[in-house]
């Protein structure tokens, strides 16, 4: 594991010199999975430099990853993961961005923001650079409204409120566990849609944040995501994907489905909408199809499973909820494919590893 903290003189270009007052500076880690040098951080310097980074290097651990000067970071590669987790390292995916969840596990902060290394700073309709991290923090620090839909979207944003007919008994809202951001330019499409619409780009900036209603699933994307690690961290397991596995590109969605079921059970909220990032690079649709093709069939069984999943009342912690979900995965989804039997075991291993590295959370 590498740890660095270097201070340099402020950059002279206009964007890098922008003065930003950092929110939650000492309470949030930024987790980045990567296989390449992190030059993209230069663009994010005005927004990210005050925060601590956890970089999870995927692939060949002997390769050197360079990080621009001035960032405070830890870098973990596969050798570090094996050393820290021992036999339990088997639950962390290899050669897949799902390895990012190791960063969630080793963090000691209350909040996590995770972003992909092909995501750049977007601009709002006025041309102003968007501080995605700041908007995520605002989402997480304001309540959610999963039990009754507000037609003016997030009632806690400036200039909005609860509309006529909204029950006063529900206006206090609930804690927000997850903030799910979106993307301009390259949409987060599956391989078949990429093949049908190779030139499609998302240019619509929708100035809205809304709570996903209780009982409604959604396809969570991990490239622009923030969450309250203390509230929901143990559920943010990105599954077994990549090398040696029959499926890929379902890591974040698996975590999202598990997280949503658990949030609904525990009375927590999930928001989606702002902030936007600029997704710069379209992945190869043919490579994606090889990774996704089993999942495209399996999701027709997976989604009804999660829609019908219920958790008993004695599941009062995220860990207990997640272990219960793993039992249901083994019982019901292993009939779809033996992979789910292995995934259910990995879910248990993940919780065991999480509790070993976070003993105070386990006792809570």
TrEMBL record:
Its EC number is 5.4.99.30. Its main location: Golgi. It is found in: Golgi apparatus. Keywords: Cell wall biogenesis/degradation, Glycoprotein, Golgi apparatus, Isomerase. The keyword Cytoplasm does not apply. Belongs to the RGP family. Probable UDP-L-arabinose mutase involved in the biosynthesis of cell wall non-cellulosic polysaccharides. This is UDP-arabinopyranose mutase. It comes from Hevea brasiliensis. The lineage of its organism: Eukaryota, Viridiplantae, Streptophyta, Embryophyta, Tracheophyta.
